[in-house]
Amino acid sequence: MKRLIITFILFTTFVFLTTQASAMIQDDWLKTVVLIEQEVKNEQGQAQYIPIGTGFLLQSKEGFFYVVTCRHVVKNKDGSNRQGLYYRLNTKSFIDNPFDRRPINPLLKDLGVDYFLHPNPAVDLALFPVKVDIKKEEIKFATLSIFEGFEEIFPGDDIFFIGYPIGTVLSERNEPVVRSGIISRKNTDNTFLIDGASFPGSSGSPVITKTLPYTYERDKKNFNLTQPKQARFIGIISQQVRYREPAISAQSGDLRVIFEENTGLSLVIPANFIVDILKSGLISSYEAKERRMHKNEIAR
């Protein structure tokens, strides 16, 4: 009995310490997201900025910086680039300049690239390179070392996701919304569903597994209490899953209207597809060109 009590106390202390560490890690996760907006003109011809999506900050293996978001956030249905897009990130100087709003299309033109897309047009992913100053901006970049593959996640796993659903954006500062849920189902097309409601503006939100005070060895069906499981990036939200119910006229039998409801489920594009883009020839060519330009500047 005495041994059981000591074991319980040690385990409780371990859970508490790990939970505290998890909270610190999650503070960093909040800094990995940027707001994506679109400029529109009001009736007076004044510029207004409408939140349309979320971006996730990523650093490649070669040290280049990118924003990951959904293809439909930056591309029109006909495949053309949406105009008037900006990404907004926080600065470290809250009083003088609380955030920077930077246009995307002029940046792509200056760099001589377009959005980096997955070769499969059905994969709702887009990456674009960014130039940032990590000494001035209040941001963090994820790296491939914290990615978790599709084959390593399972239904029932606890997750959280971070983004900017419309109606939650603040004018003074980027303050994303954090929501939690679980993995609901792995689909045959290598996407997966989460039990976590998303809304317009959530597209591009990173989905992250929660830190746990143990590691579950699935092949051995064993809980390893000496090895905590750290939070891992597993994908980005593509869209909410809707339930559609047709209303049929009792008199004519014709379809009158279709009612749509948010099921509370969201479709997620897994991290594996992002890795596919990062390993593509277009990314390699862009990074090689940037390295050459940097060397030439130093030589001058």
Structure description:
The radius of gyration is 22 Å and the shape is globular. A hairpin with a 5-residue loop joins strand 1 and strand 2 (47-59). The chain has helices at 2-30, 71-74, 105-111, 271-278, 281-299; strands spanning 33-41, 47-59, 65-69, 85-90, 99-103, 116-117, 126-129, 158-163, 177-186, 192-195, 206-209, 215-217, 222-224, 233-248, 255-270. It has five helices and 15 strands. It has a single domain, classed as Thrombin, subunit H (Beta Barrel), CATH 2.40.10.120. It is an alpha+beta fold. The strands form three sheets. It has a seven-stranded antiparallel beta sheet with strand order 5-4-1-2-3-7-6. Strands 8-9-10-15-14-11 form a six-stranded antiparallel barrel. A two-stranded antiparallel ribbon has the order 12-13.
Keywords for this structure?
single chain, 300 residues, alpha+beta, Thrombin, subunit H, 7-stranded antiparallel sheet, 6-stranded antiparallel β-barrel, 15 strands, 22% helix, globular
Topology:
Layout: H1 2-30, E1 33-41, E2 47-59, E3 65-69, H2 71-74, E4 85-90, E5 99-103, H3 105-111, E6 116-117, E7 126-129, E8 158-163, E9 177-186, E10 192-195, E11 206-209, E12 215-217, E13 222-224, E14 233-248, E15 255-270, H4 271-278, H5 281-299
Antiparallel strand pairs: 1-2, 1-4, 2-3, 3-7, 4-5, 6-7, 8-9, 8-11, 9-10, 10-15, 11-14, 12-13, 14-15
